[in-house]
Specification:
This protein is α+β, with helices and mostly antiparallel strands. The chain folds into five domains: 179 residues, Rossmann fold; 195 residues, Isoleucyl-tRNA Synthetase, domain 2 (Alpha-Beta Complex), CATH 3.90.740; 55 residues, no CATH class; 125 residues, Isoleucyl-tRNA Synthetase, Domain 1, CATH 1.10.730; 61 residues, Roll (Ubiquitin-like (UB roll)), CATH 3.10.20. It is 34% helix and 21% strand. It is built from 26 helices and 37 strands. Strands 10, 11, 12, 13, 14, 15 and 18 form a seven-stranded mixed beta sheet that branches. A hairpin with a 5-residue loop joins strand 10 and strand 11. It is globular and about 100 Å long. It binds one RNA strand through helix 7, strand 11, strand 15, helix 11 and strand 33.
Length: 856
RNA sequence: GCGAGGGUGGCGGAAUUGGCAUACGCGCUGGAUUUAGGAUCCAGUCCGCCGAAAGCGGGUGCGGGUUCAAGUCCCGCCCCUCGCACCA
């Protein structure tokens, strides 16, 4: 129940939200004097907004408000990543139009975010599903196409049999579809790709610029994802036909130990290899089986490797020896060259494969200080570096040197040489879906693939489609008025590309559109981009480390190379916030969330089955969400903000609890009561005072204030909002207990406290600020400066230890010397007792902190 | 398996150039106020030594080490979370 002591949150919040809006307080000032671009990852507008979504925006808002009060002109926009599958699924399930569904959700999201009073410049709102936006997404596609960075390729791709669509590598999690968890299979399709591998080296290299500015684990994740590996390409030849069969290896020194080769089942050269093989049918059957298996099945580690002999041989580049070629599904088609050389003596996988199929083992490396391993006795491959043996002209070389020499020899022979391989794959962007940006390409029988001329953009999505059920092709393929068009080159009949783009294309450049959201000539004006880029602080979930954050860096670099941008990287600082978890009770029998009053002694009363207590990320499907709207109505936006910020370190996961809400609410109420009590004292000038001439009580408060300013500034800049709030709570207690409430120190503390609180509880602060008689916003203040002379009290407590154990604490003036402190310490009863019968051997003094007496 | 992060009261968490472990909040206990409840305010709250105070001892996942001094540094383990995982 709300008592009359509780502050009227909703009333205050609505009042100031309206006032901020009328005053245009958060409108971007362009050109900026001193710019600061704060960006939170924009949301996909799904159903309603819950507290789990909020953390991102609350953190961003604190950053933005602190920067406003540090005198920056900020750009702090919000928009919608509004293309994507859920809209289409809703259309399939409920028959609603994806566009209408999306618009409704956007309206709900916008209204909810507005209720939170976050400092967005709403005039810059964008939605990726808006033709005014996706026109430029298409423009970017064409831009890449012109640069040779968008190309079409027939390939085996990740295919989700349930969603009936192609997935990027990044959308395959543990071999399963990210969305529906169905095992992904391989399917051969012709698709559009972005050549992100051309940028692999720079994407890796420029991570160095981000060190100390991005979370180290995100940098590491990207590094692993790019997966640079230095090695050697070695070209074998197919016996008889002379087809080149390149392999990639990091161990060129083991080349003389090759006893077989293995090629991936989906390798494009395989059909040619087996064309005239007696084993052809057997191989084809093996390939069929392999492609049916899901990635998850194929890559299960404990699974025994399988393979089948192709009946064909390759020629060793040095020895001319015949090497049998096998097909094996443990070889990945999309890493290296898709063919590996089998060196069973020195590679564990090859060893296992050779053992299974009775292939010979040939030792070509021996330990530096040991004997040559004997093949018949080996139980595992010898994978260490050592000295090359049985390797012709290279015999006797240490591995490291051998790797170099073999590579340069191959280079001379034109049969390979040093090369670099990346784990990163080209970015497959075609999606067989309706609700995305159409790929702006036209296929003409005569002219081939032709880009849609820029002046014809956007290629609009047709409306009024009824049937969105996945059929293995884009719903657009069945819309003749969309598909059928004229070739822009020859004017003859032609067909549009029926696919739409991966939504990660939409979000790879949105930070640029915010800079110039209504530009009708260009995606953005390069001059404006120069004024505002890079994003100074980007805030979002760590789950985007290898998807969005790599794609955005890639697109940014392409635009940088074209001279449209002046910075190499889009996001200068990145902060990744933790999740919001909510405890709930789950009945495994009824398969639903159960309220506490339905449970008795751990048993679900309704069905008699035991209840499981779970702590998981808030999600609508689980039913453990706290919706924002009703919460704000009941407790207010500021309470929601404080709850989130105080619960723990912002980068860590937090549990949303009622107790946390109570604590936040209580804190704000304490502030409200203190200010209500002294409301009549808030107005008017505060007389100047000399801190040196204050009473002890006053000086203590003055020092507490300086300390708090110092700590709040420091903690806020480091994203330690929980400890910043702890300091504010301490100062509040100090002010509440302060008795000389007419003192200028007290009055000044009240004033500055409001400003310190403002980034965290903006509505309450704005209200209290106006109680001082101010007419301008609390955010037109500078964040308070501390008086550096007083950030520490002049009294200090020195711990007196004897042999490392604290035996007394002394209250003394700061700055005492060791001798003085020791004299004082020796007067202490407890110290004397512990020194009885002992000699002081040595003392260690840490000024103003500690004195350790070593005695014995 | 590899990589990263983590393990501190009943709970969320503070404290890192090595220097008073447990700030702040929640919960709990007692008191004040109140017809009562709620709300609020004050005091207490790491554990143990029968209660209290003083005092003493123990204590930051486990075992060792360096040091006058270790949550913090070093060595060896255990456990948890996340990411990658047949990458040739």
């Amino acid at each position: 129940m709300r008592s009359k002591d509780e502050y009227p949150a909703r009333e205050i919040e609505e009042k100031w939200q309206k006032w901020w809006n009328d005053k245009g307080l958060y409108l971007t000032k362009h050109p900026p004097r001193q710019k600061y671009y704060v960006l939170e990852m924009f949301p996909y507008p799904s159903g309603d907004l819950h507290m789990g979504h909020l953390k991102n925006y609350v953190i961003g808002d604190v950053v933005a408000r602190v920067k406003i009060m540090e005198g920056y002109d900020i750009l702090h926009p919000m928009g919608w990543d509004s293309f994507g599958l859920p809209a289409e699924n809703a259309a399939i399930k409920k028959g609603v139009d994806p566009k209408k569904w999306t618009e409704n959700n956007i309206n709900t999201y916008r209204n909810t975010l507005k209720k939170l009073g976050i400092s967005y410049d709403w005039t810059r709102e964008i939605a990726t599903s808006d033709p005014d936006y996706y026109r430029w997404t298409q423009w970017i596609f064409l831009f890449l196409y012109k640069k040779g960075l968008a190309y079409r390729k027939k390939d085996y791709v990740n295919w989700c049999p349930n969603c009936k669509t192609v997935l990027a590598n990044e959308q395959v999690i543990d071999g399963k579809c990210e969305r529906c968890k169905t095992p992904v299979v391989k399917k051969e399709l012709e698709q559009w790709f972005f050549k992100i591998t051309d940028y692999a080296e720079r994407l890796l290299e420029d991570l160095k610029e981000l060190e100390g500015k991005w979370p180290p684990q995100v940098l590491k994740l990207q590094e692993n994802w790019i997966g640079r590996s230095e090695g050697c390409e070695i070209v074998f030849e197919l016996e008889g036909k002379g087809i080149k069969l390149p392999v990639f290896t990091t161990r060129a020194d083991t080349l003389f130990g090759v006893t077989f080769m293995t090629i991936a089942p989906e390798h494009y050269l395989l059909p040619e290899i087996i064309e005239d093989s007696p084993h052809r049918e057997e191989v084809e059957e093996y390939v069929r089986q392999a492609l049916l298996k899901s990635e998850a099945e194929r890559t299960r580690e404990e699974r025994e490797k399988t393979g089948v002999f192709t009946g064909k041989y390759a020629i060793h580049p040095f020895t001319g020896e015949k090497i049998p070629i096998w097909v094996g599904d443990y070889v990945l088609a999309n890493y290296g060259t898709g063919i590996v050389m089998g060196v069973p003596a020195h590679d564990q996988r090859d060893f296992e494969f050779a053992k299974k199929y009775g292939l010979p083992i040939r030792v070509v490396i021996k330990p530096e200080d040991g004997d040559e391993p004997r093949p018949e006795e080996m139980e595992a491959a010898f994978e260490d570096y050592g000295v090359m043996i049985n390797s012709g002209e290279f015999t006797g070389l240490p591995s490291r040197e051998g790797i170099e020499r073999v590579a340069s020899r191959l280079r001379e022979m034109g049969k390979g040489g040093k090369t670099v391989s990346y784990r990163l794959k080209d970015w497959l962007i075609s999606r067989q879906r309706y609700w995305g940006a159409p790929i702006p390409m036209i296929h003409c029988e005569k002219c081939g693939y032709v880009p849609v001329p820029e002046d014809q953009l956007p290629v609009r999505l047709p409306e009024g489609i009824r049937d969105f059920r996945p059929k293995g092709r884009s719903p657009l393929a069945d819309v003749p008025e969309f598909i059928e068009t004229k070739c822009p080159v020859c004017g003859g009949p032609a067909r549009r590309d029926p696919d739409t783009m991966d939504t990660f294309v939409d979000s790879s450049w949105y930070h640029l559109r915010y800079i110039d959201p209504r530009n009708e000539e260009m995606p953005f004006d390069p001059e404006k981009a120069e004024a505002w880029m890079p994003v100074d602080q980007y805030i979002g979930g760590a789950e985007h480390a290898t998807k969005h954050l790599i794609y955005a860096r890639f697109i940014h670099k392409v635009l940088y190379d074209a001279g449209l941008l002046k910075t190499k990287e889009p996001y200068l600082h990145l902060f990744t916030q933790g999740l919001v978890l909510k405890r709930f009770f789950w009945c495994n029998h009824c398969l639903r969330v159960v309220e506490e009053n339905e449970i008795e002694k751990g048993i679900h009363k309704a069905c008699g089955n035991p209840i499981e207590e779970r702590l998981e990320m808030m999600s609508k499907s689980k039913g453990n969400i706290v919706p924002v709207g009703p919460f704000v109505e009941k407790h207010g936006a500021d309470t929601a903000r404080i709850t989130i910020l105080f619960a723990g370190p912002a980068e860590k996961d937090m549990e949303w609890t009622d107790a946390g809400v109570e604590g936040a609410r209580r804190f704000l109420n304490r502030i409200w009561r203190l200010y209500s009590k002294h409301r009549d004292k808030l107005r008017g000038e505060i007389p100047d005072f000399d801190p040196e001439k204050l009473s002890k009580e006053e000086k203590d408060l003055y020092i507490a204030l300086q300390k708090t300013i110092f700590e709040v500034r420091k903690d806020s800049s480091e994203f330690h909002f929980n400890t910043a709030l702890a300091r504010l709570m301490e100062l509040l207690t100090a002010m509440s207990r302060f008795e000389k409430t007419d003192s200028p120190v007290f009055l000044r503390s009240l004033r500055e406290y409001i400003v310190l609180l403002a980034p965290f509880a903006p509505h309450l602060s704005e209200e209290l600020w106006h109680w001082t008689g101010a007419e301008s916003s609390v955010f037109s203040n500078r964040f308070p400066e501390y008086d550096p002379r007083y950030t520490r009290g002049e009294l200090t407590e020195i711990a007196v230890q004897i042999n490392g154990k604290v035996r007394a604490r002394l209250q003394v003036q700061r700055g005492l010397e060791e001798k003085q402190v020791l004299d004082l310490a020796l007067k202490e009863e407890n110290v004397r007792r512990h020194l009885q019968g002992k000699n002081i051997r040595k003392t260690i003094y840490v000024k103003d902190k500690l004195l350790n007496i070593v005695a014995g």
